[in-house]
């Protein structure tokens, strides 16, 4: 029973542990180069809640696709699997804080095949001899051992694993919000391509009429065949853009399906109906730059990676000091269960070990851990600055797209009026076909330009939501789900 006395000592030994690593504290925004305000025009009022930013576009299909992608995307599923792995690594690391218990048992029977004696060696080393007949030998044993964390190496290792687990949770959130944004961007692209296809087909219909009119005028001797050839050339160029647009549309819809964990053609029927490019709100409150330290999951992951690297310095430094292992065991052996408890032996041991010379390995490990922590800090700061860059670029792109939309709207209105007048004047012979041809080309270009500006505006808004860290609940640290894993497919299912 002696081994039970080891367990009450553990809390006191843990409290006595002296952590050798540096004390970790989060860096202040000023240490990370975070400015007080953005260098581009921005609404720095308190940032709005962006957990489900896709609802701001007021497009039910967009919202439905994003929600489905959150549940079914395979990149997200892989991130969840990595999060589960990190949790189990934490469980394994915590196990080092507790003693290791073991038990053993044995049974043997010997028979004398002829006269003489039979000698049997029991598991505890006891030698028993019998002169005749057979005998039974039963043995039971239990042992316990515990490595005392005198200098905090184990505690530091647990702290590093805990930080790794938190970082894996934030990495999962980073994958999640990236997938949400990619689904939304591809949806916007699909609607843009639909708009461009619609523009091309309408232009092709008008150019068919122009070609017919030019042919009539050539037959009537009013104009030369140059008009008919120009009309045919313009129509062919417009028709040539349609297969390319259709191929791009097919690729975009296929990409959307794969993002939802579906076969490439699964969404073609669902998205077949042409709809407008989604437009978001007119303004977005982005808050101050320091808000990104809390909202962006990649920043919080980088901070946890720094915490883990700092804790590992303590793990390395603890190797400089002695290690203490304590333990004990009890054993019993007999020829029958009735006498099994008659004789019980036990032992208690303690072992102290200290490395005297290792060729500088431990010192090198400490310096390597310190260098890793320094590198983690630089990665943390780089992530912060890159995040601020993403936000400012998205703000500038959004402002640019909105300005271009206004200009292209004016250009489309003017081009439409010019095209109407040019068609009327060409029919009456008041202008030549070159003027009509230029007017039709300007109309198609203005229509595509307006559609592109609207798509760019939506994409810039999506990029801004992503840069701000929208799409997850930043008030919690994501945890691995507790439900059991799905079984892997069998060879027949594969």
UniProtKB/TrEMBL annotation:
One of its GO terms (cellular component) is plasma membrane. Its main location: membrane. It is found in: Cell membrane. It is a lipid-anchor. GO terms for molecular function: efflux transmembrane transporter activity. Belongs to the outer membrane factor (OMF) (TC 1.B.17) family. This is Efflux transporter outer membrane subunit.
């Amino acid at each position: 029973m002696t081994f039970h006395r080891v367990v009450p000592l553990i809390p006191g030994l843990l409290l006595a542990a002296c952590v050798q690593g540096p004390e970790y504290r989060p860096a202040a925004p000023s240490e990370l180069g975070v400015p007080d305000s953005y260098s581009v025009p921005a609404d720095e009022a308190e940032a709005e809640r962006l957990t489900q930013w896709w609802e701001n576009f007021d497009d039910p299909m967009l919202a439905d696709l994003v929600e489905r992608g959150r549940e079914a995307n395979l990149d997200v599923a892989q991130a969840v699997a990595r999060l589960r792995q990190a949790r189990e690594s934490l469980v394994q690391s915590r196990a080092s804080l507790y003693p290791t218990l073991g038990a053993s048992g044995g049974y043997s029977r010997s028979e004398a095949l002829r006269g003489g004696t039979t000698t049997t060696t029991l598991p505890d080393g006891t030698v028993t001899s019998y002169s005749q007949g057979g005998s039974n030998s039963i043995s039971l044993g239990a042992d316990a051992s515990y490595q005392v964390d005198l200098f905090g190496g184990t505690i530091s290792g647990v702290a590093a694993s805990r930080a790794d687990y938190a970082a894996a949770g934030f990495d999962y959130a980073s994958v999640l919000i990236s997938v949400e944004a990619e689904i939304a961007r591809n949806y916007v692209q699909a609607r843009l391509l639909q708009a461009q296809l619609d523009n091309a087909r309408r232009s092709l219909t008008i150019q068919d009429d122009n070609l017919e009119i030019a042919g009539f005028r050539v037959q009537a001797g009013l104009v030369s065949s140059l008009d008919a050839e120009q009309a045919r050339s313009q129509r062919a160029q417009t028709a040539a853009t349609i297969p390319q647009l259709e191929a791009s549309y097919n690729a975009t819809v296929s990409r959307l399906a794969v993002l939802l964990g579906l076969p490439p053609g699964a969404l073609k029927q669902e998205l077949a109906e042409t709809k407008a490019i989604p437009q978001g709100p007119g303004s977005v409150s982005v808050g101050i730059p320091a808000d990104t330290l809390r909202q962006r999951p990649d920043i919080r992951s980088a901070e946890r990676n720094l915490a883990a690297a700092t804790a590992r310095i303590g793990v390395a430094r603890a190797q400089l000091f002695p290690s203490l292992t304590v333990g004990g065991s009890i054993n019993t052996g007999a020829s029958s269960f009735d006498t099994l408890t008659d004789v019980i032996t036990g032992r208690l041991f303690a072992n102290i070990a200290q490395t005297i010379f290792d060729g500088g390995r431990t010192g090198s490990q400490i310096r390597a851990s310190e260098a890793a922590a320094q590198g983690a800090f630089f990665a943390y700061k780089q992530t912060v600055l890159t995040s601020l860059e993403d936000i400012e670029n998205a703000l500038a792109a959004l402002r640019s797209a909105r300005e271009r939309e206004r200009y292209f709207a004016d250009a489309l209105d003017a081009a439409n009026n010019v095209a109407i007048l040019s068609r009327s004047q060409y029919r009456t012979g008041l202008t030549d076909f070159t003027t009509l041809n230029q007017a039709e080309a300007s109309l198609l270009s203005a229509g595509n330009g307006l559609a592109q500006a609207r798509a760019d505006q939506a994409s810039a808004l999506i990029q801004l939501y992503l840069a701000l860290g929208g799409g997850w609940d930043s008030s919690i640290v994501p945890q691995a789900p507790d439900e059991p894993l799905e079984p892997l497919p069998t060879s027949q299912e594969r």
